Amino acid sequence: MSAPYRVLAFDSGIGGLGIVRAIRALSPHIRVDYLADTAVFPYGEQDDALLTERIISLICLAVARLRPQAVIIACNTASTLALDALRAACPTVPFIGCVPPIRWAARQTKTGVIGLLATRATIRRPYLSRLHALYAPQCTLIAHAAPHLASYAEQVFRGQSVSEHAIYKDIEGLFQHPDSARLDAIGLGCTHYTFVLDLLRKLAPPGISWLDPAGAVARQTCTVLQTLPPIAADSARRPEQAFFTARPQDAQALAAQLPAYGFNDICLWDDQTATPSCPA
Questions:
Q1: Which domain holds residue 182?
Q2: Number of domains making up the chain
Q3: Which of 16, 153, 228, 244 is geometrically suited to a Cys-Cys bond with 11, CB 3.0 to 4.6 A?
Q4: How far apart are CA 138 and CA 186, in angstroms?
Q5: Do 204 and 223 fall within a single domain?
Q6: Same domain for 195 and 220?
């Protein structure tokens, strides 16, 4: 893709930056703004009704303010909860969701036993049951909620150490099911987990394929953008920015990692003003 395009990637924290990285690898001509709802992180532990209302309000404001050609909901919890409502609220904007890779796992498995590692919110929603019934009815699904893994991923992203024991305790339920011995494909059901993927591979039994949807979401984004006209020159020149709805924990350590993803610094998002605040 040689023409300029502009998208907004949205997540509760840093998880969506894995998708941003994949987009930049596929097409450096795509301009990306990033919005992390750090004020209520982690999404996987929030009330569904309040979270849905917040997501719709925040994204509608971001669409009006940043004028993206497409929006990537780079968060499984937000996608399974609010994707249909967002499409109804902003019908002229394409939305690319990030949903549990059940179909991919069903195609990958040789034993018929697949796994999903996700947040509590994603695991408990009927959406997951529908995916299982639609795309993998012949497979046994071991779905495990890891309540702390997204927070551990945030620490690893910042260059901080997390004990392997703590990570294993959060995922060991995958390997305690009666059919776990035949488990051979595990999907990542939270975009944060891409940043602990090497540790997951290390700690899991051998012979398991770990499926990270970041690349697939990036490719779908490029496919969607190719159906749209390029952006105007003034929009193409606007700097790409990483917005956070609250100052993130260990902000200095996080900011030090952002240039690798194409962003210079943390910008604080303000719902009440026309222009979010960024460092001078």
A1: 102-212
A2: 2
A3: 16
A4: 16
A5: no
A6: no
For 218-246, b where at least 16 C-beta lie within 10 A, e where not — what string?
bebbbebbeeeebbeeebeeeebbbbbbe
Is residue 148 a part of any domain in this protein?
yes
194 and 244 assigned to the same domain: no
Residues in the chain: 280
pLDDT tens digit sequence for 93-111: 999 999 999 999 999 999 9
Q: Is 173 annotated as a binding residue?
A: no
Residue positions annotated with a catalytic role:
75, 190
The annotation status of 33 as a binding-site residue, yes or no, is no
DSSP letter, residue 277: B
User: Known binder of ligand: residue 148?
Assistant: no
Identity (one letter) of the amino acid at 54? R
Pairwise CA distance, residues 257 & 36, whole Å: 15
Report whether 191 belongs to an annotated binding site. Answer: yes
DSSP code for 276:
-
11 annotated binding-site participant: yes
- Percent with pLDDT over 90 in the chain: 79
DSSP run (H or E) holding 203: helix 197-203
Would you say residue 140 lies in a domain?
A: yes
Residue 222 · residue 23 · CB < 8 Å: yes
